[in-house]
Write a structure and sequence with these properties.
This protein is α+β, with helices and mostly antiparallel strands. The protein has three domains: about 100 residues, Immunoglobulins (Immunoglobulin-like), CATH 2.60.40.10; about 220 residues, Rossmann fold; about 100 residues, Immunoglobulin-like. The protein is built from seven helices and 27 strands.
Length: about 450
């Protein structure tokens, strides 16, 4: 809070603008800031934009006051000066705000992979139009680490996450400033993000998210979410889908934005011996995949092909790839998605996809990640070939008959990215990955022809 003592009155500006802030643009490409403060006596609030002429914008009373300012155009930086004139015309106080931008604001929420645990190599912002509202409530140029949260002894310091690359890429693509509203906290579950917890401060995650949005002006372009690792135990995984849907619905209701774009990452890999706490990794992955068509205006971002920097966190290069994928998702790009799968012969399965941008690519040449299993988890039908048929937008999986001569089970499930630590490498020309899926029940397999004696 800035106070201006004078012989005439006391004039303060307490909210609505701060240095380095990004304001959310409206549909017409402008933003109208609403500032507030206090005054010892009534007066005329005057404003000057970008070294233009002073003009009166409101008459304010003694005590608390609030007033809209003239609209600011998209882009920036803008300079805003305010002053209060008493009835005689004397100036009671003045305040200047520097580097104000108008663009798009995005919430960054979730747990440690949104925070970022990769080692920082380049801390400086690469685009001055990308700013962040940090956890301390101060706007500043966006630099790593975005989420500079306190951690217990022995835990790696927050570092390189996806948010900065997302902001830089989106600002470049849309040619508008991008503001990042920092809200994530490592090691947190859906229960801890529950809107019903209430409270205040950093421990109250959802309440803090809303407080950050209010501090940013109350309006945002969308939200990014990467969370789920702490919900992969047997009990939380069983209710993850319901809690996730409730979270998105409540956030949209509380922000009064019923079609708020919500882009979220599917769980990546867990490269360690799974314990009970992480035993249902694939259950949460599949719940995340199935949520996208069920919740309007959401966009799933796949990560199963990315490299880890440790057993559970993405590497620096992977975090940047994820940031670029988030930026594409924010622009409405989906990437490959499963439609269905069917037998076309006793030894061939065709997996129909949608959303493929410019064909499929596979790092290393060979397409990896597809497998089938019986309902009890027994692996079946190891595919000796997987290729993309661009004419039909299908993946063609080729397998031998059961060489052991065992009868095939009635029910066979198809998977892509099965288990905690699969090897997957399917992306499209935009580097958007095919999400992990499974179990997906296949229709009955056509009968095998008789063996030639």
């Amino acid at each position: 809070m800035i106070t201006f003592p004078t012989l005439l009155a006391l004039f303060t500006v307490t909210g609505g603008l701060s240095d380095s802030q990004i304001l959310q643009r409206a549909a017409n490409g402008t933003a109208t800031p609403v500032v507030s403060g206090t005054a010892d006596a009534p007066g005329r609030l005057q404003c000057r934009l970008n070294e233009g002429n002073w003009r009166e914008v409101a008459t304010v009373p003694a005590g608390r006051w609030s007033a809209p300012l003239p609209a600011l155009s998209v882009g920036g930086p803008h300079a805003v000066q305010l002053r209060l004139a008493d009835p005689s015309g004397a100036i009671a106080g003045e305040k200047a705000f520097r580097e104000i931008y108008v663009g798009d604001l995005w919430i960054l929420a979730g747990q440690s992979n949104m925070v970022g645990r990769a080692r920082i190599e380049e801390p400086s912002a690469r685009d001055p139009r990308v700013r962040m509202l940090a956890l301390d409530g101060v706007w500043r140029p966006a630099t790593h680490p975005l989420h500079d949260e306190p951690l217990p002894p022995g835990v790696t310091r927050p570092g390189h996450g996806p948010g900065l690359e997302f902001g830089v890429e989106l600002a470049r693509a849309l040619n508008v400033p991008v503001g990042l509203i920092i809200c994530a906290k490592g090691g947190t579950s859906m229960a801890q993000w529950s809107p019903d917890l209430g409270g205040s401060g950093r421990a109250a995650l959802y309440a803090n998210l809303l407080a950050q949005v209010r501090l940013a002006g109350g309006r945002v372009a969308g939200a990014l979410w990467y969370q789920g690792e702490n919900d992969t135990g047997p009990e939380p995984s069983a209710v993850y889908a319901a809690k996730f849907k409730e979270f998105v619905a409540r956030l949209r209701a509380d922000l009064k934005h019923p079609d708020l774009p919500f882009c979220y990452a599917q769980l990546a890999r867990f490269a360690n011996e799974p314990v009970k706490f992480y035993s249902e990794w694939s259950v949460v992955r599949e719940a995340q995949r199935r949520a996208e068509p069920e919740i309007p205006h959401t966009r799933l971002v796949a990560t199963v092909d990315l490299e880890n920097g440790d057993y559970i966190h993405l590497s620096r290069a992977s975090q940047d790839r994820l940031g670029r994928r988030f930026a594409l998702a924010a622009q409405g790009k989906a990437g490959p998605r499963l439609i269905d799968a069917r037998w076309t012969s006793p030894t061939e399965i065709r997996v129909r996809l949608t959303g493929v941008n410019g064909g499929l690519k596979t790092a290393g040449g060979r397409m990896l990640g597809f497998e089938t299993a019986a309902p009890d988890g027994r692996a079946k039908l190891l595919f000796f070939r997987a290729v993309f048929d661009a004419a039909t937008s299908e993946v063609v999986l080729s397998a031998n008959r059961d060489v052991a001569g065992r009868p095939e089970p009635e029910e066979i499930n198809l998977w892509y990215g099965r288990g905690h630590d699969p090897i997957c490498n399917v992306t499209d020309a935009l580097d958007l990955a095919l999400p992990a899926f499974g179990p997906v029940r296949l229709p009955p397999r056509p009968p095998l022809p008789p063996k030639v004696k």
